[in-house]
Amino acid sequence: MSAQIISGKEISAIYREKLAEKIRQYPSENMPVLAVILVGDDEASKIYVRNKKKAAAEVGIGCEVMEFSSTIGENALLEVIDELNDNPHINGIIVQLPLPKTLNSLKILSRIRPEKDVDGFSPYNTGLLSYNHPDALISATPKGVLELLLSTGIELEGKSAVVVGRSNIVGKPMAMLLTNHNCTVTLAHSKTGNLPDIVSQADIVVAACGRAKLIKAEWLKDGAVVVDVGINRMDGKLCGDVDFEAAKEKAAFITPVPGGVGPMTVAMLLENTFAAFCRQQSAQACDYGNHQCGCGKCCP
Ligand code: NAD
User: Which residues of the chain have pLDDT under 50?
Assistant: First the structure.
């Protein structure tokens, strides 16, 4: 039987609508604001930033995009981040990756104050995630993947999961998040020798390696849940890291590319921005009294 398709497009629309509803509770002069730092001329980055800005506007989040030439110096960029950190009207700050090679990404990302680090890429928030701490701002893509898995209704506890890819922004936080949800996790990567065997043991497969259609249907366990993070181009068409057409005949649930993880990533970034906004509000003795962000820190 063919797999059930997990539509990130539909699920993210529900999240965004709920978020817009929560934001409407606030007076319009006090809306959450996200600052996006874009360095250089990477065409894909420009498209991602445009999409984030549009999605933010749709839910009522302000979005200030700051563009810089790829020749900007590290100190100048750090100063920009310091100003945004100190600006009380900015609730979240993200730096669109990849940065030009002349800039030290770790140093730049670490400069964002943890409570404004809505991409969750800083070592501090990654550390909180590894502690399964409720204050962690969790990297949007893994967080979106988790929501897609939960949407299937399957019990995660005790399941064996494989994450293919160990990047700091997707693979590693994904493995931590699944571990925190009591999965038994294998983190596979480019040096993993027996990938087909490892994938064949898994109840849950998260593919995040950026290799078009690498994961074959015959590797999958019958009834596996497959989430495809990859975005690749093959013969002029977008495709994921999973051979979708064949894999959907073996899996119980599977995400498409496009329309799977991508829209969830944007929705989770907006959720993180709203959560950061709410925490900053409650820290400043809020007097609206009806916040509904669900973070447990706002007004009762
Ligand atoms: P990355 O290039 O930083 O990391 C890729 C990882 O895959 C590495 O850890 C590498 O070891 C592993 N890998 C490479 N070849 C492999 C192989 N043959 N077998 C096993 N592992 C292998 O990439 P990233 O930033 O983590 O992104 C991964 C993919 O996800 C890319 O296609 C990217 O475009 C996509 N992505 C999508 C979203 C989204 O919102 N949908 C967000 C982020 C990234």
Answer: 285-293, 295, 297, 299-300
